[in-house]
Amino acid sequence: AETYIGWILIIVQERIKTHPSYFQILHNQAMMVTPNKKQTTEKNSNLFTEECDETAESIQEKLSKQCTWPWSDFFDSKVAFQTSLPAPLGPFQVGYLDLMTPGLPQDSSLLRIYYPAPSSTSITSPPLWADKECRAGMLRFIQSAAWDWPTWVNNSEFNPLFAAKKILLSPAGFLTGFSFGWPLVGTVRTIPIARAAPLAPHVGSGWPVVVFSHGMGCNRFNMSQLCYQLASKGVMVVAVEHREGSGFGTFYMKGDTVENIPHLQVPVNEDEYRVRNKQINHRCQEVLRAIDLLVKINAGEAITNVIDKNNNAINSDLTILKSSMDLTNHLYLAGHSFGGSTVLLASSLDPKVKAVFAMDPWMYPLAGQNFEIAKPTLVVNSEIFVNPNNLHVINKASKNNREVTFEVLKGGVHLSATDLPMAFPTLLRRALGMKGKVDAEVTMVEINKIVWQWLKNLIS
């Protein structure tokens, strides 16, 4: 009963937030928060400061679009009140293709390829950010994490989540309560990208390429804003969907049959490290296989795509990407959390990789494994996620590398880099550890600035 009353209170709060004055307050906050980067360290002071006022205005506009009726009788239907994630900020629109190669998860790939499309491209049927099945998988992952919190992951930002665990008593009660609430107050999000859109013509040897590795409880599109914002700037971004059990749920094709891979709940006991270490080495191979696939696609080799039997002709047209990628001079890796540690491990195993961006890298799965960080690397930690154990593993692996830089994102939390906060109301964001001192929309803008500045410096 307490849980359901709590959801009702959140709904009432959401109705209050439809008042125009609420968005004026958020606008004022954005205007105050964003320009404050001018007062930070000299290293970060010049990052896109000229865009601050425009960014604040765009944030207000995007926030105002979140004013949607939250009831979800039509949550996944075409008549639902769908709201797009923020529009691409670069000069290009963004196209995408999903690719799954045949075979078992240990020897095949599942990718989403984001690429620059002409600015005139229309976004007529944007994909849903999360359908009913995805939401159910994410909730099962949240439930799993609440009862078996991973080692070396700071949990102070998730204290309300643990309070809910105590109130709801059991995993089943926890899942029931949250399953009831999300459709009532959640926002139906779409991703502003166009499937199989034309590829924008490139200059020189091809578009720079970033291979992206997601964190635990995510998939190839849960961190779409990082991916499509980069693509809108003129970058090919290849998001790997990891299929070793760390995501909230995924699948592979066995002939014409879909075989589901649920999230693997890992008890926090003496076997935790063994399981996580096995997972990260599986993930590393998935990143390396993705690079091998890109080489073949760039060369015009035929690739079998089994992801969508009903629309295979569209997804299989990978020929538009032939000779479009500069894999010789501009191949980079990026990742978040479990994905951060994954790309740090993978970076030294392929000589084509030029540099690495790791956000909140979770290094516990590599604590007992000898490896080397030999490429130029930027490590960005959200303020609360800074953990001396994680830093120790990175420092040990990079002891001979003078090109490893560390930065701290003030005001953000671990989940700020994901799309997840924008699917929930503000009050619930804080309860689920999705909101720090700054609104998620503002933090995401700042994260995208940091990522783009990192890549722009490398490209130039």
Tell me about this structure.
This protein has 460 residues and is an alpha/beta fold. 37% of the residues lie in helices and 15% in strands. It contains 13 helices and 13 strands. The strands form 3 sheets. Strands 5-2-3-7-6-10-11-12-13 form a 9-stranded mixed β-sheet, with helices on both faces. Helix 1 packs parallel to helix 6 and helix 8 crosses helix 10. The radius of gyration is 21 Å and the shape is globular. It starts with a helix and ends with a helix.
Uncertain residue segments: 1-5, 7-80
Q: Please count the beta strands (DSSP E, at least 2 residues each).
A: 13
Instruction: Quickly give the structural class.
Output: alpha/beta
- Name the beta content range: 15-25%
The percentage helix is 25-40%
Q: Measured on Cα atoms, how large is the radius of gyration? A: 21 Å
In whole angstroms, the N-to-C terminal distance is 58 Å
Can you count the helices? 13
Q: Strands of the largest sheet, in order across it? A: 5-2-3-7-6-10-11-12-13
Average pLDDT level: 80
Major β-sheet profile: 9 strands, mixed
Q: Could you state the order of secondary-structure elements as H and E?
A: HHHEEEHHHEEEHEEEHHEHEEHEHH
Shape: globular
Short descriptors:
460 residues, alpha/beta, nine-stranded mixed sheet, disordered N terminus
